[in-house]
Amino acid sequence: MFDTATTDYDIVDATPYGRDPLKLLADECRRQGLGFGFYFSLVDWHQGHEFDGGNNNPIPPSMEPVIEAQIRELMSQYGEISEVWFDMSSPTVAQSERFAGIVRGLQPHAAINSRVWNNVGDFRTLGDNEIPSVPLDGTWQTPASIYHETWGYRSWQQRDDLPGKIRDLVVGLTGVRARGGNYLLNIGPRGDGSMVEFEADVLRGIGDWLARHPGAVLGASATRFGGQPWGEVTVNGSNLYLHVTDWPQSGELRLPGLATRVRGVVEDGAGALDWRMDGDDLVVSLPDRPHDQILPVLRVALAGELRIIPPNTVDARGAWLLTDVERGYSHTDTGSYGSTRRTTVRHTAYLVTDRAERVSVTVRGTADPDARYRVAVGGQARVVTGAALTGGAVGPFTVRPNQVTPVTITLAAPTHQGQDLGLTVDTTLVAATDRLVGWLDAPTHLETGATTEIPVLVTNPRREAASGSVALRVPNGWTTGEPVSFTDLAPGRTVEARIPVTVPADAEPGPASLAVDLSAGGRHLELAGQVAVVLPNVAVGRPATQVSTAWGGVPGRAVDGNTAGDYLVDNSASHTAEPSYQAWWQVDLTQRYQVDAVEIWNRTDCCTERLSDYWVIVSPEPITTNSLAEALATPGATAVHLPEAAGRPTLVDVDGATGRYVRVQLKSTSDPLTLTEVVVRARQ
């Protein structure tokens, strides 16, 4: 599509048009004050690549000179280039680095997307039309199209429901923007260059929506609110924008954790709304119907800079157990579409106190011992090795009173923005440096009738060694082991005692408190922990089946007790074939149980949206059909519909249903089913 000297098979030399459209476009963009960039396909079917439906062709050495020459032409003959958008193929690391190096050498200000592959680009390009289920760290983009079936003009494409199409794309735009990404929207002109009238009307509709809601998207930024049950949140200066994709039927919309004073709330185009503060939650009273039928927006006028109280903030004095960690996600690849996976690039927890404290940070977990990590508490930071991070206390830091202080761990010098931390954090203890702290690394739940060894720890942030003993206090009727002594615990170190705890078989499910009993000289703190008492998991290790198997994702993975959820790293997810018609997975519990609840665990690496709009069916009789309608009609079956994407986990209450077979089945007629674990809690 440009005048290249590498071949005569180009638009200038081989077509009646005889002109270079990229030169014309580049010149016109400059006249209009617009930046100009190129899409460049690393696959070239004319120059030597065979067709590959997966677009994963390797690049043979014979094609390297052609690709490199064409990149040089594009970077040197069209003036200043703002962006180079590579696509297709499966290059080696050396090829990716060489192609990107040519761009950076000739056009140092041009941004390069990640489909140059091997993590060499400047920003991450997600999958086509992918709206991530979680906010992503770093710079990233979603490439979207008017129709998901095609990126070009097709005469057979249905063009109807103009308002619905506008809404779909506006929801995609706001979803990407609210999660911190850039939205790239493609249209498909006809072969003569003319625009399809329907697509032009769609673009005008999006433009009209943007004009009705100035500041809601253009110039707006993401927030730490994340996705809400009713929609998305963006911020622009002192205005907070609530994009309401699901108008609450209750007549009230709730935004939790807003610390900035609110001056007023209006629905764009309709006027002021009543509101109130419920603690730190903003509650807005809504009319029966929204004013904007495409996507209504509420504008919240703030009295100052946006301040948020994250839901996992821990309020304490002297010591904080930070177990609910916020993860920052990105992506990495090893040279192709199929090798791309989600990574964890940040751990953040939040604390607040009513007085200033000098503290140290103790991390319990695993880390790459030689990697260098940056530990930040508020605006203060220390760089330590992985061995030092998990082997002692990091600090000291100063925590200021009456404000939310983030405690964040990242790589000190990542090779690219998607490099995984290589860190698993079980618990983070932030403790004052003048006292001994006894704490416990309790599991999230304890099963009735089982004995579990619970790690009970003592950390010494003081300047002198300490000695003493540690025990565990448990609810009445439970049994626990004897106290464990420790001697000369050095400053900055932690000692662990594993104390057995037995929960009676007749214990009632629900929350329970465990507390540390620390005997030691000098000032010390004893921290308590909450656990959930649950019925046993009767699904683990039981026979499992699914409608089909793909990518090696056998059904037994979903009942192996491994809830980690990274398909490529730990082989913990099942997978059916693509495409699938109402794909299903099923476990045979081998006998009938009174089932209390079912836990559905989604993946962590990618593709979490695949496990959405699904049914959980518990049946005393075998479910032998592939049809969802027939499965729901199985005699004695109890079924629950889950429209949203599954969490980690999603707890499904089946209210004591009697069942031997538990099925998870999609409503979709094309999506594959992939899940990490199905836990069935039942009375023995």
From TrEMBL:
<dbReference type="Pfam" id="PF01120">
    <property type="entry name" value="Alpha_L_fucos"/>
</dbReference>
<comment type="subunit">
    <text>Homotrimer.</text>
</comment>
<comment type="function">
    <text>Acts as a defensive agent. Recognizes blood group fucosylated oligosaccharides including A, B, H and Lewis B-type antigens. Does not recognize Lewis A antigen and has low affinity for monovalent haptens.</text>
</comment>
<keyword id="KW-0106">Calcium</keyword>
<dbReference type="InterPro" id="IPR000933">
    <property type="entry name" value="Glyco_hydro_29"/>
</dbReference>
<feature type="domain" description="Fucolectin tachylectin-4 pentraxin-1">
    <location>
        <begin position="535"/>
        <end position="682"/>
    </location>
</feature>
<protein>
    <recommendedName>
        <fullName>alpha-L-fucosidase</fullName>
        <ecNumber>3.2.1.51</ecNumber>
    </recommendedName>
</protein>
<comment type="similarity">
    <text>Belongs to the fucolectin family.</text>
</comment>
<dbReference type="InterPro" id="IPR051941">
    <property type="entry name" value="BG_Antigen-Binding_Lectin"/>
</dbReference>
<keyword id="KW-0732">Signal</keyword>
<comment type="function">
    <text>Alpha-L-fucosidase is responsible for hydrolyzing the alpha-1,6-linked fucose joined to the reducing-end N-acetylglucosamine of the carbohydrate moieties of glycoproteins.</text>
</comment>
<keyword id="KW-0430">Lectin</keyword>
<dbReference type="InterPro" id="IPR008979">
    <property type="entry name" value="Galactose-bd-like_sf"/>
</dbReference>
<dbReference type="InterPro" id="IPR013783">
    <property type="entry name" value="Ig-like_fold"/>
</dbReference>
<dbReference type="InterPro" id="IPR006585">
    <property type="entry name" value="FTP1"/>
</dbReference>
<dbReference type="InterPro" id="IPR057739">
    <property type="entry name" value="Glyco_hydro_29_N"/>
</dbReference>
<dbReference type="Pfam" id="PF10633">
    <property type="entry name" value="NPCBM_assoc"/>
</dbReference>
<keyword id="KW-1015">Disulfide bond</keyword>
<dbReference type="InterPro" id="IPR018905">
    <property type="entry name" value="A-galactase_NEW3"/>
</dbReference>
<keyword id="KW-0326">Glycosidase</keyword>
<dbReference type="InterPro" id="IPR016286">
    <property type="entry name" value="FUC_metazoa-typ"/>
</dbReference>
<dbReference type="InterPro" id="IPR017853">
    <property type="entry name" value="GH"/>
</dbReference>
<keyword id="KW-0479">Metal-binding</keyword>
<keyword id="KW-0378">Hydrolase</keyword>
<dbReference type="Pfam" id="PF22633">
    <property type="entry name" value="F5_F8_type_C_2"/>
</dbReference>
<comment type="similarity">
    <text>Belongs to the glycosyl hydrolase 29 family.</text>
</comment>
